[in-house]
Amino acid sequence: MQAKVKWVDGVMFLGESGSGHAVVMDGAADHGGRNMGVRPMEMILLGIGGCASFDVVTILKKSRQDVAACHVELDADRADGTPSPFTRIHMKFVVSGRKLKANQVERAVELSATKYCSASVMMEAAGVDLSHSFEVVELD
Questions:
Q1: What is the model's pTM?
Q2: Spatial distance between the Cα atoms of 51 and 67, rounded to a whole number of angstroms
């Protein structure tokens, strides 16, 4: 896997993935930015959420669950000072569908957290306190 990050100006950077996609990262005004993109640490949090959500949906689909929607709400704390890495991340998965089995959703979340999500495993190895919860929303 490869990526490239180019400085634009101030504290704005353009990240380019090896797959050909781009994203703008920028800082807050008090750090010299213009608030024109996500912060780098927000990108990490979004990446964890994306990685875990990919797993949860894939596992549920393979389990023949009728998933209509899935999102994950992430809540994180960072250490005071510099550097300020994440110290805690909680992921709440909200899965909507028809006749979803709560035990299957719980299993998918657990498998993502312990076996499949490389980003989550990496964070735990770095000492981040990761926790997960889920909610099942039944659709008519």
A1: 0.91
A2: 17
Question: How many Cβ atoms sit within 10 Å of the Cβ of residue 49?
Answer: 20
Q: What are the φ and ψ backbone dihedral angles of 117, each rounded to 5 degrees?
A: -80, 105
Taking the CA of residue 90 as centre, how many other CA atoms within 13 Å lie in the half-sphere pointing to its CB?
6
Q: For residues 46 and 11, state if they share a domain.
A: no
- Calculate the dihedral angle through the C-alpha atoms of 123, 51, 49, 54, rounding to the nearest 10 degrees: -150
- The phi and psi torsions of 125 (rounded to 5 degrees) equal -65, -30
Is the domain of 102 the same as that of 130? yes
Residue with tokens 């929607």: 69
Residues 20 and 71 in one domain: no
- Residue 40: partners with Cβ closer than 8 Å, 6 or more residues away: 13, 25
pLDDT in tens, the chain (140 residues): 999 999 999 999 999 999 999 999 999 999 999 999 999 999 999 999 999 999 999 999 999 999 999 999 999 999 999 999 999 999 999 999 999 999 999 999 999 999 999 999 999 999 999 999 999 999 98
